[in-house]
Amino acid sequence: MLPAVSVIIPTYNYAHYICEAIDSVLKQSYPTELIEIIVVDDGSKDNTEEVLQPYIDNGSVKYYLQQNKGKASATYNAIQKSTGKYIFTLDADDYFFSEKISSSVKIFETDDEIVHVANPAKFVIDGKDAGKEEIPTELLEKKLDGFNLVKYFYNNRMLYGGGSTFSGRASALKSIFIADAVDMYIDEFLVLAILNKGYSYFLKQPLSIWRGHNTNYTVTQGSVNNKNKRLDDSSKAILDLVMTDNFPAEVQKLYSLHHYTRHLYFKEAANDKNLQDVMMLIRHCFLKNKYSLKQLRKYSVFNRLVPIFIIKLLKK
Known about the structure:
Blueprint: E1 5-11, H1 18-26, E2 35-41, H2 48-57, E3 62-65, H3 71-81, E4 86-89, E5 95-96, H4 100-108, E6 114-118, E7 121-125, E8 128-132, E9 143-145, H5 146-155, E10 167-169, H6 170-173, H7 186-194, E11 199-202, E12 208-212, H8 221-244, H9 249-269, H10 275-288, H11 293-298, H12 301-304, H13 308-315
Parallel strand pairs: 1-2, 1-4, 2-3, 6-11, 7-12
Antiparallel strand pairs: 4-10, 5-12, 6-10, 7-8, 9-11
């Protein structure tokens, strides 16, 4: 007997895309009556509720409106409201291929230790095919230990299996606390956190579309600075959770390197990096922790140590 599943769609001002996302779920090869679609609207200011009304009226979608708190809050809210055995995340501007749910559930049902099933994404940029995600072949179509996979990801400065390619075992996912402050890095956090709960499996075929468009983000300098500040705060929130939750020491060490170098990158982008920031990174990388030369190079640590006045000269 096939299990019930939940597809959660956090959204903010994506009325012009969200119906395509929902329709892709309703057109799955998996039995529609076993699919629960939960939309958590993070305080949209467009006509999201209006375009969703037909789906709400016919019972296809469970719609919840919340005060604007960010994507992490909307995602956590949706996870807690879900009732399916497995939870699929779908961004409101993306969509699934028809075999997405069936293929993922088939893997989950073969092994109770698998808590995360993902797939490569295909890219559509401004309506045009832009290729697909190239996941390393050594990760495909095999059971992967979550802890070792996290080490692999952060040692190689890469991450796969998040966003609209993510699905998780509900019993594991519901046990994860997600702070509102995780905000813009919720996709990364979900992968990091669930891999700490068990095993992962990557399907070979692309089963999700990642859509790029000019409303993904704004491009003015002020908006870029605001976005980078939010990203920096989100990264710090994940670091706080990783350091206080039951994560292995090696994962804490690797993620802290990821955060501190990312933090200095954002400071550089805002022309705000100072000597104190450089000293902080030196203490973390060379005095407090002993990272390998490969890790330091992979995270461009030596670039981050360059004083800001030299960076300005190079830019000129």
